[in-house]
Amino acid sequence: MIFGYASGFHSKNLRLQIKLLMGFGCDKIYRDKYVNRNDYRDGLRRMLKRTKKGDIIFVHRNEVIFASMNEMVRILSILRDKNAHYISLSDFHFNTLRLNGSFLLKVFDSIRRFQNDILLEKRNHIKRPKQRTLLMGRPSGIQNATLDKYEYANFLYEVKKETIETACQKAQLSKSSYYRINSVFKTENYKT
């Protein structure tokens, strides 16, 4: 038996696909019209369930039936297990009746496995720093070098009576760092 499968978001696009599939002599055409990508494709499920040995499935384009590489390999594996065939009308290389179509299936299955391995490896790399509780970014608290610069700038300001700008310049410390550290010391003195 020759099946056709059509799906799309717009009725006009569906009608064109169905007309094209009827021209190729499809005995039964399954269709899915969905509002968004998450809709369950009942027509595709019914078609795959009714497919048996020797059946041929025609589609207008590959993206009509395959939403992802994993789904493509899954659907084509189901058809291969049932000894059914798949033909894409616009992508003539996707014809499992020919040798090049069978070869393409094996290549895409290898690519899918490679993609899954890469994703698994990425997930493992993300988990490792979390497992080691590795802290990323700037260390918390005041660094010793910055504290030394603050003490020198504070000495210049309070003892030598220089302006804050001059004291910070000589100490090679920004004014914002000076005031930030100064506020930390004031709050600590206030608490004690």
What does this protein structure show overall?
InterPro entries: Resolv_N, Resolvase-like_N_sf. This is Recombinase family protein. It comes from Croceitalea marina. Residues 2-125 form the Resolvase/invertase-type recombinase catalytic domain. There is one protein chain. Helices cover 58% and strands 11% of the residues. With 192 residues, it is of the alpha/beta class. A four-stranded parallel β-sheet has the order 2-1-3-4, sandwiched between helices. β1, α1 and β2 form a beta-alpha-beta unit. α4 (69-81) crosses α5 and α6 (144-158) packs across α8 (175-191). It starts with a strand and ends with a helix.
Number of strands: 4
Largest sheet geometry: 4 strands, parallel
Q: First CA to last CA: what distance?
A: 88 Å
CATH fold assignment of the largest domain: Rossmann fold
The count of domains is 2
Strand composition percent: 5-15%
Q: State the strand order across the main sheet.
A: 2-1-3-4
Structural class, by secondary structure, is alpha/beta
Note the total helix count: 8
CATH architecture of the largest domain: 3-Layer(aba) Sandwich
Helix content: 55-70%
**Average predicted confidence as pLDDT:** 83
Which overall shape is indicated by the principal axes computed on the Cα atoms? rod-shaped
CATH class of the largest domain: Alpha Beta
**SSE arrangement, N to C:** EHEHEHHEHHHH
Give the uncertain stretches in residue-range form: none
For CATH, the homologous superfamily of the largest domain is named as Resolvase, N-terminal catalytic domain
Provide the gyration radius in Å.
Answer: 34 Å
